[in-house]
């Protein structure tokens, strides 16, 4: 399993990192991607996702789907789904919302609190752990598939 670590100075750097991931997805090219995001509340999971969504061409706001479970972004060439499973009581709830329909070709999914969907979610391509170290964010990427490895190889 390939692993890579970065230190991001601030929120602006976190958004820029998300945009860099978007650029890689389009240049490699990857037809889909499942990213698990781990980190405490306020660690930058939504901030990183905002950068990705904007990097894929979205011009509007990118908000946390804490209460809606998923925020969809229908873009010209793809769809991006931002999941926040923090408030999920039972993984079976994902079946009721038709979770399998979200994981199609040309769909990129960023999933916060993925452990709450254990047994229902598809396998991840990339795990991104975010944590604060002093005033900065440490971002650790772990490839879990060939797609994940392609991304990490491009970031090195």
Automatic annotation (TrEMBL):
GO terms for biological process: tRNA threonylcarbamoyladenosine modification. One of its GO terms (molecular function) is metal ion binding. GO terms for cellular component: cytoplasm. It is found in: Cytoplasm. InterPro entries: P-loop_NTPase (IPR027417), T6A_TsaE (IPR003442). Keywords: ATP-binding, Cytoplasm, Magnesium, Metal-binding, Nucleotide-binding, Transferase, tRNA processing. Its main location: cytoplasm. NCBIfam families: T6A_YjeE. Belongs to the TsaE family. This is tRNA threonylcarbamoyladenosine biosynthesis protein TsaE.
